[in-house]
Amino acid sequence: MSFFLGIDLGTSAVKCLLVDENGEVKASHSVEYPLLTPHPGWAEQHPEDWWEGTVRCVRELMAKSGAAPASVASIGLSGQMHGSVFLDRGWNVIRPALLWCDQRTGAQCDAINRIVGPERLGELTGNRAQTGFTAPKILWLRDEEPEHYARVAHVLLPKDYVRLLMTGELAMDVADASGTLLLDVAGRRWSEEVLRLLDIPAEWL
């Protein structure tokens, strides 16, 4: 019998589920990891903790289920949105990820509204500038940690970092990309206009 493995990378834990061909749950497991709050309103996590938690979760899930790893027909990934993972050219994590609930980017949201304009931003991205989104986090890194910003080669969301280590593939699905404030939602492609106005390199995405 074949099984389907689901991995959900949450804010407090990674949750794994093994389901058989009939939709019956074979086993489930979860592994927690810490949330960092170095300053009031800040929320960070170490992407390495997500990976280590995922590996442990899957191994313990498979052991609990008794299913052979070769019986897993496919893997589905879901996860917390909007968290920003900054990687260098060697795929090394540059700094802890800024999470969806991080509130440090108010000044950067104001800057985006000045530069792009709230109406134009809404037309292109379908969103307002809000602190949880990716674009203001990138600008915050440029403003506050230029030494880290200078090393950036890739920007991923949390589950995409786990998928990168699982598959070697740099990717982001359209649903998650719509929460970056950098996607032309109607065109289903990165917004050249927003990237140009905010001076964010398209090759990072």
Verbal overview:
Strand 9 and strand 10 form a beta hairpin. Helix 1 packs across helix 6 and helix 2 crosses helix 4. The strands form four sheets. Strands 3-2-1-5 form a four-stranded mixed β-sheet, with helices on one face. With 205 residues, the protein is an alpha+beta fold. The chain is built from eight helices and ten strands. The longest helix is centred in the N-terminal third of the chain and has 19 residues.
| N/C terminus separation | 38 Å
Radius of gyration: 18 Å
Q: Summarize the amount of helix as a percent range.
A: 25-40%
Uncertain ranges? none
Number of helices, where a helix is a run of at least 4 consecutive DSSP H or I residues = 8
Largest beta sheet: what is the strand line-up? Answer: 3-2-1-5
Strand content: 15-25%
Give the structure's gist in a few sentences.
With 205 residues, the protein is an alpha+beta fold.
What does the secondary structure layout of this molecule look like, with pairings?
Elements: E1 3-9, E2 13-20, E3 25-32, E4 44-45, H1 47-65, E5 72-79, E6 85-87, E7 97-98, H2 106-115, H3 118-125, H4 134-144, H5 146-149, E8 154-156, H6 158-167, H7 174-177, E9 183-184, E10 189-190, H8 192-198
Parallel strand pairs: 1-5
Antiparallel strand pairs: 1-2, 2-3, 4-7, 6-8, 9-10
Helix pairs in contact: 1-6, 2-4
Overview features:
alpha+beta, 10 strands
